[in-house]
Amino acid sequence: MGRKWNNIKEKKASKDANTSRVYAKFGVEIYVAAKKGEPDPEANRALKVVLERAKTYNVPRAIIDRALDKAKGSSEESYSELRYEGFGPNGSMVIVDTLTNNVNRTASAVRAAFSKNGGNMGVNGSVAYMFDASAVIGVSGKTADEVIELMLESDVDVRDVVEEDDTVIVYADPEQFHAVQEAFKQAGITEFAVAELSMIPQNYVTLTDDAQAQFEKMLDAIEDLEDVQQVYHNVDTEE
Question: Domain TACO1/YebC-like N-terminal spans what residues (predicted)?
Answer without folding.
Answer: 3-73
